[in-house]
Design a protein that fits this description.
Distance between the termini: 16 Å
CATH class of the largest domain: Alpha Beta
Largest sheet: 7 strands, antiparallel
Number of domains: 4
Number of strands: 15
Number of helices: 12
Order of helices and strands: EHEHEHEHHEHEEHHHHEEEEHEEEEH
Strand content: 15-25%
Radius of gyration: 21 Å
CATH superfamily of the largest domain: ATP-grasp fold, B domain
Shape: globular
CATH architecture of the largest domain: 2-Layer Sandwich
Helix content: 25-40%
Length: 343
């Protein structure tokens, strides 16, 4: 059994490789950006690639490559069920509604006329989002029909840039003031005012649709549950000061007593239903009942190193340090072995 791993210093691959070395698991580094990647994998049983949603290159082909490798009979992480809706909030809406998951009320329109009519009769506030983006980027609280109509006209006109330099700079300054980033990071934000990201240049503007979610009031935090196979762990993210968003706030809590196990149960149930290898679920609460806001297969590594344990599928708690990246490797190996036994 040999695993091909695409290395990237800011990805899961750092932990995957370390786990393989520590446990004598055969692996080799491969380069998914090369035209001969299929040949590189000829002596491998599986491919693991934690690709970014904001990469200008991988956005063009990562899902297609993973689909293709999976179709050849090899194991992949992430697989088709795990990744097809990655960084696509519209796709997530349809998926979660189709399986009757407790999704926050979500509205998407592909006609300016229909969107404007809805904006005139709905209640406010609403949350405006682009289908792409993470860390609360491209997310706005819309407090009035006037603002909603402005966004709708823009969505069906010139559209929205994939990178908003002024809001990005403001976020970098906020993080610098909290000691979460460096002065150089702030300087890079200033540079981005004049030179946008390569991803934004390659992908162009988001337009031709508009997406809103119902605003769920009285939440000063959200709960993120991550399910990997038959294990789940969690963090509690506090809302940013003077804001309504928790994602990217940097204020994270870990104690087990902070989590409603109903969110864990729902996360396990949804993961089983959509058959994913790894999935994060962001929950808020409406009248005490958990609602899913977004899902994603990826997450930032270091944030979860302080988690104090995990739940097994029977909702029993297992105290202690966790290694979710090792779980990914072991689950993939197990799936490959089971696949062989069935052929």
């Amino acid at each position: 059994m040999k695993i091909g791993i695409h290395p990237d210093k800011d990805s899961f691959s750092v932990r995957w490789i370390a786990y393989c070395k520590e446990n004598n698991i055969s692996y080799k580094e491969v380069d998914c950006y090369q035209s001969d990647i299929i040949q590189q994998l000829s002596d491998c049983d599986a491919l693991m690639w934690h690709f970014s949603h904001k990469g200008s290159r991988e956005s063009k082909f990562a899902k297609q490559l993973l689909y293709s490798v999976q179709a050849s009979g090899k194991g992949v992480f992430p697989d088709v069920n795990t990744v097809w809706h990655f960084d696509d909030k519209v796709g997530q809406k349809y998926l979660l509604e189709a399986i009757d998951a407790p999704l926050t009320g979500t509205h998407v329109f592909y006609s300016k006329k229909e969107a404007l009519e809805w904006a005139g009769r709905t209640s406010y506030p609403k949350v405006f989002k682009l289908r792409t983006g993470s860390g609360s980027s491209s997310v706005q609280l819309v407090r009035s029909g006037t603002r909603a109509r402005h966004l709708i006209r823009k969505a069906f006109g010139r559209g929205f840039r994939q990178h908003e330099p002024w809001s990005d700079l403001k976020e970098r300054i906020r993080k610098y003031s909290l000691g979460m980033t460096s002065l150089w990071d702030v300087i890079k934000g200033v540079i981005r005012i004049f030179y946008t990201t390569r991803y934004a240049r390659v992908t162009g503007r988001e337009k031709g649709y508009v997406y809103f979610q119902d605003f769920v009031p009285d939440n000063n935090y959200d709960i993120r549950i991550i399910v990997i196979g038959d294990k789940a762990f969690a963090i509690k993210r506090m809302v940013r000061k003077g804001d309504f968003r928790a994602s990217g706030s940097g204020a994270v809590l870990y104690e087990k007593e902070l989590f409603d196990e109903e969110t864990v149960r729902i996360a396990f149930e949804v993961s089983e239903q959509i058959q994913t290898q790894c999935m994060t679920y962001d929950f808020v609460f409406l009248e005490g009942k958990p609602q899913i806001v977004e899902i994603s297969y990826g997450f930032v590594i270091k944030v979860y190193d302080d988690c104090t344990g995990y739940w097994s599928k029977d909702l029993n708690w297992h105290e202690g340090s966790i290694n979710p990246y090792g779980w990914m490797v072991e689950d993939l190996i197990k799936a490959c072995i089971e696949g062989r036994s069935q052929t």
